[in-house]
Amino acid sequence: MRLIGVISEYNDELSGKKFHDYKIRSDYQNKETILNYLKKGTSIAVTMQVVKSLIKDDSSIIGGVSYLTDGYWIWPNYLHFYVDKLSIELPSDFLNFISKNEQIKLISDGQKLEAINFLKLLK
Q1: C-alpha–C-alpha distance, residues 101 and 63, integer Å
Q2: Is residue 70 exposed (0-12), middle (13-18) or buried (19+ Cβ within 10 Å)?
Q3: Which of 47, 56, 89, 107 could form a disulfide with 23 if both were Cys (CB 3.0 to 4.6 A apart)?
């Protein structure tokens, strides 16, 4: 399991980067595919935390924080927002994975449990 896209302003318990440390305006030729992939993950954890945009002059509410997985990668739901708005940087191995696996397959309960336990270990 690999955790990506955590922004420490939202969760300083997980090993994420500060928002301003992420490279923005990445050139994604398959941005719609990436956005669809990020939306279709399986939810494994939901928090009561409501987060607002960290983009300058944008105080919109993104929503509650949840974590999604495809059975291998884990990401926060707000990652979709920042990829959509700013083309925030994503790891190249994640992008390569998506290009080979554009559709998320159903994951087993065992894979969900593994992802939940992985998140617990990071705290």
Answers
A1: 28
A2: buried
A3: 89
CB atoms within 10 A of CB 91: 12
- Greatest distance between any 2 Cα atoms in the chain: 42
**52 HSE (CA, 13 A, CB side):** 5
Could you report the per-residue pLDDT of 62-92, keeping only the tens digit for each? 988 999 999 999 999 999 999 999 999 999 9
Structure tokens at 23: 């490279």
- pTM of the model as a whole: 0.88
Partners of 14 in the beta sheet?
none
